[in-house]
């Protein structure tokens, strides 16, 4: 148990979600007092599916679009570290509902930052940003933190750019100890966002549905994937190093990129050993989208490296869904 975290009051906005639940587990293991600020805790949240994770978490019902509620929460609970994960994370929804997405992801982040700035107890603020910050990238080179955001074909990406920029600016303008985590596609046991590739593939296999991934992509897109446990460790390391690296953004990923067609095949083989032909009916691209993050800064300044290899992680994930499908 780390002395830094022992009995430390921490607030995890969006803590009832997939990544939030793993972060709560990590903080509890370190001895922290963990409060979750979220709209609700769904029945398929890991905080409910794994009672040992949620038993020692205190839930505060609230919406990050409500600045007053956030201010009261931080000050009454004497929160010292905020992990801001609350977001509208589903990319297709961002194009169907741009304004609600921007209000949650951008304005909600401003609210969390402002409530933190105004609290006399707050010491560190850690933002869950995203590799989507970099927009639509086509080159083979790894992407460093200094790369400029590029345009994207969805509203989710600019909503995360706005949140990321706000966090950097609060660090500069007010001297806040802010850390920014830019994550690639997280995966692992318990993700119930079935618009994501890996949960969708497993669901289709369990339900014996066609191995069809719709028209969002042609299967050629190459992405970096990060196990959710490595994500939780990353949040904690950024908070622990906030004194030395306030205002810096850090990339977190595996450093490897896989085509989503290959990932679908890996899931199929992990499921029952069978190779299936995944169907991707998006427009054919002359050049695939590629996104692979340079994680050297996190390695050098934080001592963070991923511990989970991708293929064994896929196998672990498939087993979890098969064992728990009737509970989700």
Structure description:
The protein is α/β, with parallel strands linked by helices. It has helices at residues 18-30, 46-49, 51-54, 67-76, 91-96, 98-118, 156-174, 197-206, 228-240, 260-272, 296-302, 310-324, and strands at 9-13, 33-38, 57-61, 81-84, 124-130, 178-183, 185-187, 222-223, 225-227, 249-252, 258-259, 290-291. The strands form three sheets. Strands 3-2-1-4-5-6-10 form a seven-stranded parallel beta sheet, with helices on both faces. A three-stranded mixed beta sheet has the order 11-8-12. It is globular. The two termini are 32 Å apart. The model has no long low-confidence stretch (mean pLDDT 96).
Keywords:
328 residues; alpha/beta; seven-stranded parallel beta sheet; three-stranded mixed beta sheet; 12 helices; 41% helix; globular
Could you describe the largest sheet, including whether it forms a barrel? 7 strands, parallel
Please work out how many helical segments DSSP would assign. 12
How do the SSEs run, as a string of H and E?
A: EHEHHEHEHHEHEEHEEHEEHEHH
Beta-strand residue percentage: 5-15%
How many whole angstroms does the radius of gyration measure? 19 Å
Give the neighbour order of strands across the main sheet: 3-2-1-4-5-6-10
Flag low-confidence runs.
none
N/C terminus separation: 32 Å
Determine the fraction of residues in helical runs and give it as a percent range.
Answer: 40-55%
Structural class: alpha/beta
The average pLDDT is: 96
Annotation, overall tally of beta strands: 12
Characterize the overall form. Answer: globular
């Amino acid at each position: 148990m780390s002395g830094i975290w022992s009995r430390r009051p921490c607030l995890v906005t969006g803590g009832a979600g997939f990544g939030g639940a793993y972060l709560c587990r990590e903080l509890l293991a370190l001895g922290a007092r963990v409060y979750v600020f979220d709209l609700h805790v769904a029945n398929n949240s890991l905080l409910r599916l794994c009672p040992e994770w949620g038993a020692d978490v205190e839930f505060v019902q609230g919406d990050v679009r409500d600045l007053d509620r956030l201010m009261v929460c931080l000050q009454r609970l004497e929160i010292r570290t905020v992990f801001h994960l609350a977001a509208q994370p589903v990319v297709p929804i961002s194009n169907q509902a741009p304004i609600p997405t921007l209000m949650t992801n951008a304005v909600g982040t401003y609210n969390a930052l402002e409530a933190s700035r105004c609290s006399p107890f707050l010491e560190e603020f850690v933002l869950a940003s995203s590799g989507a910050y970099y927009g639509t990238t086509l080159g083979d080179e790894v992407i460093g933190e200094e790369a400029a955001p590029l345009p994207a074909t969805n509203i989710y990406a600019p909503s995360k750019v706005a949140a990321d920029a706000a966090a950097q600016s609060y660090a500069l303008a007010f001297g806040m100890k802010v850390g920014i985590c830019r994550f690639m596609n997280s995966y692992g046991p318990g993700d119930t966002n079935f618009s994501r590739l890996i949960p969708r593939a497993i669901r289709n296999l369990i339900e014996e549905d066609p191995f069809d991934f719709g028209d969002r992509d042609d299967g050629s897109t190459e992405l970096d994937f990060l196990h959710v446990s490595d994500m939780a460790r990353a949040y904690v390391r950024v908070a622990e190093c906030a004194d030395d690296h306030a205002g810096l953004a850090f990339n977190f990923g595996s450093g490897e990129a896989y085509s989503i067609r290959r990932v679908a095949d890996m899931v199929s083989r992990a499921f029952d050993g069978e190779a299936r032909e995944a169907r991707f009916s998006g427009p054919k691209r002359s050049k695939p989208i590629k996104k692979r993050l340079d994680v050297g800064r996190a390695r050098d300044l934080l001592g963070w490296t991923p511990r989970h290899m991708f293929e064994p992680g896929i196998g672990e994930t498939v087993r979890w869904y098969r064992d728990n499908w009737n509970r989700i």
